[in-house]
């Protein structure tokens, strides 16, 4: 039996827009995702998060399910427009009240809350007024919003994540335009990414100056990254894989750990890549108490030699033209419903890469999981492929720990099936099945398997 360290954190994760519903009640303001979903053609099947899993109304029941699974931690996000309907100044007490109840309910059940401050549902007012993440003043607005959260929840919440996946916000929201706010550009992603980093630094600064000394929690950022394996043994492909990882993860992690962007981005992007002021660089350097990582898949990387493949310009890792990298998958790999390849050893290699580049930070895997078209047999949901997926990834994570990588926790994505952004409700990610007509929640076989893993701490 493989055993994990005793203090290892086992949890599941969600985000506000994907599960809460209650999009326009109790004083909540609209977010960019409310608006994006209302534009025809943006979301599969015209789905939206208006009701989602109705977690806003069924919160206690959901926490009871988590308790049944024996989870030690639950990662969720706060909806900025639920507690600040226009993004700044005015506070919505009913929103504060909801998160207070959720936090108290978790603690009552011995589940540690891990809060993400920004999981993509920007107040719509800030999109109109500040051009969203392109606006210079957005960092300041985010810092003030974060301060509201620390003030109201920080007495009980000891784990904070500022931004979820800045890469996705920048690349899919401002590069490919497939996520809100739906813009397409080859320069805006780098400006949006820059302001996301400035906003992260601002929130961490506020926390460390005013709250951390008394509240004694920790704060960090969560970035996402796939693994990039060189397609061939050639030096050019090895360099291409390294370049792809730097454009994906080091884009955000180098500023946080070293205060600078990776050289390869500076060289290739010219004035499309903004620069930090000395004060900003100083604030950013060392601004994460842990390395939050969301990891889903692996692709093969090869040197494009000036010939980026058709359809690969917006690869699943940034603007391929800027990187001169072509991506592909090994036909032998099996795929999830998202068409993401299942490659557990890629996770181990990525963990080792992070550990080496950033000098052994504590890595918290804040998301890992898979979408499958689960089969419902009688009143059980059989999802053996998901069990295999988790077993495979956890085995490789354990190998990384044995090799000296400091992995402190693992959050499965997701606690339950939910609104999968532009894919709507068609992709099934969760441990609990949600029937969207009746909103019934049924534990999947993987949820039962996971409960036993957490209980025995081995598998
Ligand atoms: C993450 N990509 O999104 C998010 O944090 C979750 O909200 C989401 O449900 C989950 O992963 C599954 O998709 C991603 O294109 C979306 O590489 C897209 C990508 C990666 C992560």
Number of strands: 15
Shape: globular
Structurally, the number of domains stands at 1
N→C terminal distance:
6 Å
**Which whole number gives the mean pLDDT?**
96
What does this 3D model show about the protein?
- By secondary structure, this protein is of the alpha/beta class.
- It has a single domain (9-456), classed as Glycosidases (TIM Barrel, Alpha-Beta Barrel), CATH 3.20.20.
- The chain is 42% helix and 16% strand.
- It is built from 16 helices and 15 strands.
- The chain has helices spanning 16-19, 32-37, 55-69, 80-83, 93-108, 124-130, 138-153, 166-174, 188-215, 235-258, 263-269, 278-284, 320-323, 344-357, 384-402, 445-456; strands at 9-13, 73-77, 112-118, 159-164, 218-224, 227-230, 291-294, 298-303, 325-328, 363-368, 375-377, 380-382, 407-413, 432-435, 440-443.
- The strands form four sheets. It has an eight-stranded parallel beta barrel with strand order 1-2-3-4-5-7-10-13, surrounded by five helices.
- It is globular and about 55 Å long.
- The model has no long low-confidence stretch (mean pLDDT 96).
- 4-nitrophenyl beta-D-glucopyranoside is lined by residues 15, 18, 164-165, 168, 224, 294, 296, 316, 367, 413, 420.
Can you give keywords for this protein?
binds 4-nitrophenyl beta-D-glucopyranoside, 15 strands, TIM Barrel, 3-stranded mixed beta sheet, 459 residues, 42% helix, alpha/beta
SSE topology sketch:
Layout: E1 9-13, H1 16-19, H2 32-37, H3 55-69, E2 73-77, H4 80-83, H5 93-108, E3 112-118, H6 124-130, H7 138-153, E4 159-164, H8 166-174, H9 188-215, E5 218-224, E6 227-230, H10 235-258, H11 263-269, H12 278-284, E7 291-294, E8 298-303, H13 320-323, E9 325-328, H14 344-357, E10 363-368, E11 375-377, E12 380-382, H15 384-402, E13 407-413, E14 432-435, E15 440-443, H16 445-456
Parallel strand pairs: 1-2, 1-13, 2-3, 3-4, 4-5, 5-7, 6-8, 7-10, 10-13
Antiparallel strand pairs: 8-9, 11-12, 14-15
The chain binds 4-nitrophenyl beta-D-glucopyranoside (PNW).
């Amino acid at each position: 039996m493989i055993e994990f360290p005793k203090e290892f954190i086992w949890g599941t994760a969600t985000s506000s827009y994907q599960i809460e519903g209650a999009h326009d009640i109790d004083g909540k303001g609209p977010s960019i995702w409310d608006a994006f979903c209302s534009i025809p053609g943006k979301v599969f099947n015209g789905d939206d998060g208006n009701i989602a899993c109705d977690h806003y109304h069924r919160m206690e029941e959901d926490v009871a399910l988590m308790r049944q699974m024996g989870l030690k931690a639950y990662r969720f996000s706060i909806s900025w427009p639920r507690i600040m309907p226009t993004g700044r100044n005015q506070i919505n007490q009913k929103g504060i009240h909801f998160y207070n109840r959720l936090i108290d309910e978790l603690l009552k059940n011995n589940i540690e809350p891990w809060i993400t401050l920004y999981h993509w549902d920007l107040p719509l007012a800030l999109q109109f007024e500040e051009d969203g993440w392109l606006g210079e003043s957005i960092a300041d607005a985010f810092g003030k919003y974060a301060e509201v959260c620390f003030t109201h929840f920080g007495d009980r919440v000891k784990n904070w994540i500022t931004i979820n996946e800045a890469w996705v916000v920048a690349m899919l929201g401002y590069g490919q335009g497939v996520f809100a706010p739906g813009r397409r550009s080859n320069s805006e992603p780098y400006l949006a990414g820059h302001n996301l980093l400035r906003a992260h630094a601002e929130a961490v600064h506020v926390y460390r100056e005013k709250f951390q000394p008394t509240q004694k929690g920790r704060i960090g950022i969560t970035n996402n990254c796939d693994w990039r394996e060189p397609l061939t043994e050639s030096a050019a492909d090895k360099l291409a894989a390294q370049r792809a990882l730097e454009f994906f993860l080091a884009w955000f992690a180098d500023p946080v750990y070293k205060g600078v962007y990776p050289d390869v981005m500076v060289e290739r992007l010219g004035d499309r890549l903004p620069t930090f002021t000395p004060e900003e660089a100083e604030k950013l350097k060392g601004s994460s108490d842990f390395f939050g990582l969301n990891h889903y898949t692996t692709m093969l990387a090869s040197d494009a030699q000036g010939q980026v493949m058709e359809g690969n310009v917006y690869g699943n890792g940034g603007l391929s033209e800027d990187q001169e990298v072509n991506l592909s998958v090994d036909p032998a790999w099996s795929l999830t419903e998202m068409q993401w390849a299942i490659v557990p050893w890629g996770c181990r290699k990525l963990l080792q890469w992070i550990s080496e580049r950033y000098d052994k930070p504590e890595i918290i895997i804040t998301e890992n999981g898979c979408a499958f078209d689960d089969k419902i047999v009688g009143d059980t949901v059989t999802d053996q492929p998901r069990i295999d997926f988790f077993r495979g990834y956890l085995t490789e994570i354990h190998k990384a720990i044995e090799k000296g990588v400091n992995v402190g926790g693992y959050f499965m994505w997701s606690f339950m099936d939910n609104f999968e952004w532009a894919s709507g409700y068609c992709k099934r990610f969760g441990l609990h099945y949600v029937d969207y007509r009746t909103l019934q929640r049924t534990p999947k076989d993987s949820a039962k398997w996971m409960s036993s893993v957490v209980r025995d701490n081995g598998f």
